[in-house]
Amino acid sequence: MERRTLVSAAFLAACICLAAAYAFPQMKGSLAGWYDPVVTTSEVKAAEWAYANVPHQSHFAGDMFACEMLTAVAFQICSIGGAWELADNANQRYSDNERAFLTNSSVEAHQLLAKYNITYVFVSTRLDSNKNFYAYGWKQPVIEKFEAPALFGKVYDVDGTKIFLVK
Amino acid sequence: MAYKLDTEGALQAAGLAVLLGLAFSIAYWGMFDVAGRFLPTWDNSMLHAGRAVFIMETGHYAEMEVVFGGVTPTYHLPAYPALVAGTALLTGLDFAWTERFLTLALTTLLAFAVYAIAKGIAGDWRAGVAAGILAMSSANLMTWGTRNSPIGLGNVLLPIALYLLLTRRTLAAALCALVIALDHQPTLLVFVLTAFLFFVWEYLKGLPKGKPSAEKILSNVLHPEVLTATLAGLAAFFTYMAWHVRQTGIACLNFSCLPQFGAKEFGKSIDFVEYFSKSPQAAAILGVILLPLSKAPGRNKALAFAWLVACVILVKNDLLGIGAFTERFLTYLDCAVAVFAGVGISIALSWVDGKRKHSEAVAE
User: Fold this and answer.
1) Pick from B21, B141, B155, B236: most CB atoms within 10 A?
2) Is A41-166 CATH 3.40.50?
3) How far is A164 from A157, CA to CA, in rounded Å?
4) pLDDT tens column, A107-132
5) What is the ipTM of this complex?
C-alpha cells in the first residue's frame, strides 16, 4: 500500500474522531441555545387566529419578537422590528412603542398607539414558559390598561395572549 | 467512460461523506430538532420569513418594510425571501417548514462549498475535508452564518463564487456575484473586495512586458486571464448599485442616507492575537505559512490571500476610521481561516506522503 494511502486513511480516521468528539457536540450545544423560541406557543396560536380573522396587512403593535412573528405567521405589519435599515425614525418608534406597553395609563397608551396609526395591540404575559423573554427590556407589559372599553376592544384572549382593537 | 473508484477515490468519497454527515448532523440536532418543535423564530429570522410570506401571499416583493409601521421603502434585498417563497411554492411546504428545510440544506451546502474552494486551492481533497470540518467547528461562522436569513445564503454563495473565479467559469461566476448582490450587503462587500484584490493581482501579472502604454494597460482589463474577476466584480457592483438607486434615488450615491452610516452600529476592535490563539483559528497559521511555500499555482495562492486580506480589512475597519460591523465580518473571516487551516494541513500531509506524482490543483 502506498504511503499516501496510509497517510490519507490516518487523516480520515482523525477527521472522524474530530467530528464526533469535538465538532458535533460543540456546535450542537452552541447552536441549540440560539435556536430556542423567542415567543410562546400561545402567541403563535394567536397570530394564526389573526391570520384567519383580522384583515391582512393591518397595523399591529407588539414587542420586537412578537412583531416579527406577526409579519410572517399573521401576514400583518408591525410597529417595530429588529432591522433598522431605513426605518422611519426608528429610535423614537422603539421608545414610544415600549412606553405604550409599560405605562399604567390607558390614555397615554392610546395616544402613543394612535400616533403611529396602530389598529391592533398584541400582548402576552408569556407565563406559559419558564424562560425569560426579552419583551420590553425584560419587563412585563402592563396589560390591565388595555381593559378600557372606551379606548380598546378585546378581540382575542386565549392562554395569556390578548389582542385589542385600538378604537 | 467507465469510472474506476481506486483507493484514493474511495478515501476521498469517505472524507466528503464524513464532512457532509457532520454538517447535516449539526444542522439537524443543533437547529432543526430545536426549531422543528416550534417556529424557527431565533433572532430576526421571522422578519425575513415575513418578507417571504409577503411574496407567497401577493406574488410581489414587499417594497415597503413590514415592520416599523410599513412606511419606509425597504432596504432588504430580495434573494433570500424569494428563495424561501420559491421553495415553498415548489415543495408545497408552508413557510415555517420551508425555513427549517433550508436551514438543513444551506448548512450542508456550506460544508460542501468550503470543501470545494479549499480543494480547488490546494489541489488535495484532504484540504477540503479538513477545512470543512474546521469551518463547521467555527463559532462565528456557525452561529451567525447558518441562520435562516440572507446571511445563511450569502455564506454558501461566497465560497462558491470564489471557486468559480478560481476555475475561470466566467458566466457562472458573474451570475453567482449577481445573486450575492441581491442577497446580503456584508457578503457582497467581502466578495467584491476579494474579487478586486484578486483582479489587481491577475491584472498586474497579465500586463505585457516592455514599456507600458495606454493601449496595453486598458486592453489588459479584458485579457482572458483577468476577464472572470473583472466581469464578476462588475456584475456584483452594478447589480447592487442598480438596487440601491432604485430604493434610495440618486441623491444617496455616497450611501450617507443610510442609518448604518449616519448612526453607526459600532463593533468592538477585534484582537487578532486573541482570535488566532483559539481553536480552530490557530490552525490557519499553518496555511498562512505553508501556502506561499507550496507548489500550488500562483493564482490559487493569490485568490486565497485576497480572500483573507479582504476579511481582515473588513474586520479591522476600525483602523480605517469606520469601526462599524467589525464583529459581523468575523463570520466571513472564520470561513477564510478554516480554508487556510485545511490547506495548511493538506500541505503538511503531502510532505508526509513523500513525492507526489502530480498536482490536482487548478492549473494556472
Assistant:
1) B155
2) yes
3) 9
4) 999 999 999 999 999 999 876 555 56
5) 0.92
